[in-house]
Write a structure and sequence with these properties.
The protein is of the alpha/beta class. It folds into 3 domains: 9-162, GAF domain (Beta-Lactamase, 2-Layer Sandwich), CATH 3.30.450; 179-414, Phosphohistidine domain (Glucose Oxidase, domain 1, 3-Layer(bba) Sandwich); 428-744, Alpha-Beta Barrel (TIM Barrel). Strands 7-14-13-9-10-11-12-8 form an 8-stranded mixed beta sheet. Strands 16-17-18-19-20-21-22-23 form an 8-stranded parallel beta barrel, surrounded by 6 helices. A 6-stranded antiparallel beta sheet has the order 3-2-1-6-5-4. Helix 10 links the parallel strand 10 (330-333) and strand 11. Bound molecules: phosphoenolpyruvate (PEP) and magnesium ion (MG). Magnesium ion binds at residues 563, 603, 624, 626-627.
Length: 745
């Protein structure tokens, strides 16, 4: 038998349903809701505050406070008791509210005569959308059951708000206004489309139920099948799991079997809501508790909890109402897994996520599929509705929800121009990247997933200038076995069909952290234990990878490059491991390549000052501009405030690159450039003019760089660079102007 308070709130929920069924606009609905709650809770006051702007709540309906305060009284998050509830996402009750810390008196409400106060957040999926308050004149305590009943009602109000029940004339809630988000562009390009929410919000047409037993049975069945699924998932993965990963799996399984979770779900259902609402309610409460947890381990587990709740929703049949996104839709979610992006593939127009960085797995996939993607768009999931118009500008790292007309038109033009440019690039796909004065540059792609490889032919590149092997390690929960690594490298070479591929050995550390690798806390991880430093300190993993590369290549030519070499001795040490491994495999009877090339990445300024012997010894050099620039200018590449501050076309950086190019050329060693800058036309022209004869970039950039190179005379670019270096001014404006003039010819 459910406890009496649940029966009470069930009656209340039934009444609410009855009043909601009556016709009327948003205001009339809210007015009816507050009066029904006030009567049932025996409270003199019941008020609903809803989010009207970012972090701003407005009194939208009240029974008991002065009517003239409606749509006038506002609280910022954190302000007054209402703002405090919104900011903390937790209920608050006091028998003597005027003396409670933070109380703010609003004369227009006439609330001074009410002593007791009880408020709960109106929230959905952990996002606060408003606050529901009851007040009484007499000093009284609110029981836990009463607070719980209010929370159930608040959940239902949140469902109604989300279903658009409180919108309309004179009642524009924040979510129907245009909204701009500043995040970070994780790929290139722009898109206009409609929102397709990834977070599967249940399409609940009726949040109430009379059939508590039926809902309970549905919930139990869904839970049983969820537990079975999780057990199978965890058992399957345990075999190869490291101790650390085992712990994570066990914790996941434990959450799925948590008795408290099921109890809370039962309690919510007993109060008269359908199972889907119960799941969301319990999930919301857990989210707000976890989000405030100081312990990072607990905060990380938030994703597990969300994941389990979403799986449960799917089992209830209400979890994936969106189905497949329509063609060209923009997928919007808090976090989106790489697998899900691969599922939808190029059909997506764009992707916007609240969380996740440039190195997130989803970002890697978005770049591979050339889908415009913005990460770090805070709160967009709560504010977007399925079908809302949205613009994604991945070049600038911005997204615009429900964009105003003029902005939409501007972007339509931008997207149309980009499509025209694409057609131009396609037309020159099989032509060489040769300048008007006859200099040929080899354009290569950066890759890291097997699925990147077809891009090689699609964009008309000559090879893979940088194969980031760590991606295979980052997208798996455990260390890939040597045989798996070898098979993958073999398949990469198969896919390249004889085109050259440069494999870079594991570049982990800094922003690329392997889930299964214990590493020390570092004050400055970008300057810390990473890349070749880890490889030399832990030669076991390096050797294993080198063996896998050699075995994967078999008799085919193999180029291996070591990342982040700061001192030539590191290169020699790593090369020795490679040549010894090569000799050993040969001795053991393996077929090994006779064309082994060993290169180094120049990513720290120090290597530009290595000995002339080093420049001769190394088979090839590749400048990793992303890292090099951050050290050259002392500007963290992951820090938005500073990362765009310095220009690759500034006189000092150009002088530095010229030095590298001329030292390599004096030694007769090929030098390429494989940072992001190589993919921007102005930079690519400058690099070519400085003597870089090979540029490696993300596939989406090959067309525009080839087009730029084919438009100009390299001599003219060289003259601009010389002038910039002698005068100290950046070369960008003049190169840009030259490009614009030449491209028109
Ligand atoms: C670079 O640093 O420029 C580079 C190509 O390597 P990554 O971006 O993977 O660090
Ligand atoms: Mg690098």
């Amino acid at each position: 038998m459910p406890p009496p308070a649940d029966i009470g709130s069930r009656v209340l929920l039934r009444r609410l349903r009855q009043v909601m069924a009556k016709p009327g606009d948003a205001q009339a609905r809210l007015d009816r809701i507050v009066s029904v709650i006030a009567v049932n809770m025996v409270a003199e006051v019941c008020s609903i505050y809803l989010l009207r702007e970012e972090q701003m709540l407005e009194l939208c309906a009240t029974e008991g406070l002065r009517k003239e305060a409606v749509h006038r009284t506002r609280f910022r998050f954190g302000q007054g008791l209402v703002g405090r509830i919104a900011a903390s996402a937790e209920p608050f009750a006091s028998r003597d509210a005027p003396r409670a810390p933070g109380f703010e008196y609003r004369p227009e409400t006439g609330e001074e005569i009410y002593s007791s106060f009880c408020g709960v957040p109106i929230q959905r999926l952990g996002k606060v959308m408003g606050v529901l308050v009851v007040q009484n004149a007499a000093a009284r305590d609110y029981s836990e059951e009463e607070i719980d009943a209010l929370e159930v009602i608040a959940m239902v109000i949140a469902e109604m708000a989300d279903a658009g029940q409180f919108t309309g004339e004179g009642f524009d809630l924040v979510r129907s206004a245009p909204k701009a988000y500043e995040g970070v562009g994780a790929s290139d390009g722009a898109a206009i489309g409609v929102v397709h929410l990834h977070e599967p919000k249940a399409a609940i047409t009726n949040p109430f139920t009379e059939d508590v037993e039926g809902e309970r049975a549905r919930l139990d069945a869904a839970m049983a099948s969820l537990r079975e699924e999780v057990d199978a998932l965890v058992t399957a993965d345990m075999g190869e799991a490291t101790a650390e990963y085992r712990d994570v799996l066990e914790a996941y399984r434990m959450f799925a079997h948590d008795k408290g979770w099921l109890r809370r779900l039962h309690e919510a259902v007993a109060a008269g809501v359908v199972a889907e609402v119960a799941v969301e309610r319990v999930q919301s409460a857990a989210r707000s508790r976890m989000e405030r947890a100081a312990n990072p381990y607990l905060r990380d587990r938030l994703h597990d909890l969300d994941d389990l709740a979403n799986r449960l929703l799917r089992r209830l049949g209400g979890g994936a109402p969106n189905g497949a996104p329509p063609d060209g839709a923009v997928l919007v979610g808090r976090t989106i897994g790489p697998g899900e992006l691969l599922d939808h593939g190029k059909r997506l127009g764009g992707v916007v996520m609240e969380e996740g960085g440039l190195g997130s797995h989803a970002a890697i996939v978005a770049r591979a599929l050339a889908i415009p993607m913005v990460v770090g768009a805070e709160r967009i999931v709560a504010e977007a509705r399925n079908g809302d118009a949205i613009v994604v500008d991945a070049d600038r790292g911005e997204a615009f929800l429900r964009p105003p007309e003029n902005l939409r038109i501007a972007y339509e033009e931008k997207v149309a121009l980009a499509a025209e440019a694409e057609a131009r690039y396609r037309a020159i796909r099989s032509l060489p990247a040769e300048t008007r004065d006859g200099h040929r540059i080899s354009l290569q792609i950066n890759a890291g997933l097997l699925s990147d490889m077809p891009n090689l032919f699609e964009v008309g590149a000559e090879g893979v200038g940088l194969y980031r092997t760590e991606l295979q390690f980052l997208t798996r929960p455990t260390l890939p076995r040597r045989a798996d690594q070898a098979a993958l490298y073999g398949r990469v070479l198969d896919a390249a069909q004889g085109a050259p591929v440069i494999f870079r050995t594991l570049d982990i550390g800094s922003d690329k952290v392997l889930p299964y690798m214990k590493r020390p806390e570092e004050e400055n991880p970008a300057l810390g234990w990473r890349a070749i430093r880890v490889g030399l300190d832990k030669p076991f993993a390096l050797k294993m990878q080198l063996q896998a590369l050699l075995r994967g290549a078999g008799a085919r030519p193999l180029s291996v490059m070591f990342p982040f070499v700061a001192d030539e001795a590191e290169f020699y040490a790593a090369r020795t491991i490679l040549t010894e491994t090569h000799a050993r495999l040969q001795r053991l009877g393996y077929t090994v390549t006779t064309e082994l090339k060993v290169g180094a990445m120049l990513e720290t300024p120090s290597l530009a000052y290595a000995s002339a012997a080093f420049f001769r010894e190394v088979d090839f050099l590749s400048v990793g501009g992303n890292d090099l620039m951050q050290f050259f200018f002392a500007a963290d590449r992951g820090n938005e405030r500073v990362r765009r501050r310095y220009d690759a076309l500034s006189a000092p950086f150009l002088s530095f690159l010229r030095r590298v190019a001329s030292r390599a050329s004096a030694a007769g060693t090929p030098v390429s450039f494989c940072g992001e800058a190589a993919g921007r036309p102005e930079e690519a022209l400058a690099l070519a003019a400085l003597g870089f004869r090979s540029l490696s970039m993300r596939p989406a950039s090959v067309g525009r760089v080839k087009y730029a190179l084919r438009s100009v005379e390299l001599g003219a670019v060289r003259a601009i660079i010389e002038e910039a270096m002698s005068g100290g001014a950046p070369a960008r404006p003049a190169i840009g102007a030259l490009l614009a003039r030449s491209a028109e010819l």
